[in-house]
Design goal:
heterodimer, A: mainly beta, seven-stranded mixed beta sheet, four-stranded antiparallel beta sheet, B: about 120 residues, six-stranded mixed beta sheet, five-stranded antiparallel beta sheet, about 50% strand
Chain lengths: ~110, ~120
């Protein structure tokens, strides 16, 4: 079955450590996105990529980094510069043309202690 | 500056009655709107959408209404069922050629509780 896989489901890290969240899709989608969900604030865009080897900052990119070396993969690194990293992170994808809506992964809950 | 707003953070409704969720937007470039449903610790799933060339779209128990002049859309669920209890997000996109990335901008969500 085609879909988006985010791993791990839950992640704990100590303050000051970098951590990388995985996102893999087998939908042959060109565009991929990372969102962050905080209580009462909806989903905020961190980074997005429309094509391999290219990506753009979203609304809250500070303290995060991404790469897009393969079409299927769009990992997100939460760096120690991110001041409030504890959140629920969602990865999504969509084809370049056609559907406007995204397909979402099941999310990763990151807790920094 | 929130471009998409859902002013009601929560809604409680009796099973069998209508649920009405509201969403307002400020960006006049938005021309496509979607509603997503989300359960805790899961990713959102697509529910229904509407293009700005329409003012209504219906799919089973779900109907979305768009009022472009008021920059307002609403989602009606009728009849509401206990399984509808979830958080609902409104999202908007500008799909024109100048729209970089066709990104979705989300509202803050409305938590719906359907009581048996």
């Amino acid at each position: 079955d085609g879909g988006i896989t985010q791993s791990p489901k839950y992640l704990f890290r100590k303050e000051g450590q970098n951590v990388t969240l995985s996102c893999e899709q087998n939908l042959n989608h060109d565009a991929m996105y990372w969102y962050r969900q905080d209580p009462g604030q909806g989903l905020r865009l961190i980074y997005y990529s429309q094509i391999v080897n290219d990506f753009q900052k979203g609304d809250i990119a500070e303290g995060y980094s991404v790469s897009r070396e393969k079409k299927e993969s769009f990992p997100l690194t939460v760096t120690s510069a991110q001041k409030n990293p504890t959140a629920f992170y969602l990865c999504a994808s969509r084809p370049r043309t056609g559907a406007v809506g995204y397909t979402f992964g099941s999310g990763t809950r990151l807790t920094v202690v | 500056d929130q471009q998409v707003k859902q002013n009601s953070p929560s809604l409680s409704v009796q099973e069998g009655r209508i649920s009405i969720l509201n969403c307002d937007y400020t960006n006049s470039m938005f021309d496509y709107f979607l509603w997503y449903k989300k359960y805790p610790a899961e990713g959102p799933t697509f529910l229904i959408s509407i293009s700005s060339i329409k003012d209504k779209n219906e799919d089973g128990r779900f109907t979305v209404f768009l009022n472009k002049s008021a920059k307002h859309l609403s989602l009606h669920i009728v009849p509401s069922q206990p399984g509808d209890s979830a958080v609902y997000f409104c999202a908007a996109s500008a799909t024109g050629r100048s729209a970089a990335g066709n990104k979705l901008t989300f509202g803050g969500g409305t938590r719906v509780l359907v009581k048996p």
